[in-house]
Specification:
With about 120 residues, the protein is mostly helical. It has helices at about 5-15, 15-30, 35-70, 80-110. The radius of gyration is 20 Å and the shape is rod-shaped. The model has no long low-confidence stretch (mean pLDDT about 90).
Amino acid sequence: MIGLNWRWIAFMTGVPLPLGLVAAFPFWRREEMILGNLAGSGIIFSAALALILRESAEIDRITRACLDAGVTCWPEPSGFMRHAIYASLGLIEVIALFMLSLAAEKRVRERRYAPEWRTR
């Protein structure tokens, strides 16, 4: 078992953040930033956890097959490194979600002021 599954890493990179934004946007529009952040980060962290569990099951399946064949094999890269990749991507996406939340909150807050008093 050598190498990473780049298809699942690409999935983690491209799918959970847009889904999290779709879940957070209705809350942000109602000026409930914290609930929007919770909804979006819940989706992102759930996707990361699901992919970590999928990777763990795959490592376990391949390791059992090696042991049944009477040989010892170790995944390359290690299981920790594989899990850390998905966890890191999830954390980076949640940070991006929070940064977008700040921009949305600023836009909502700026709407309350007259145009001549708004910051630029």
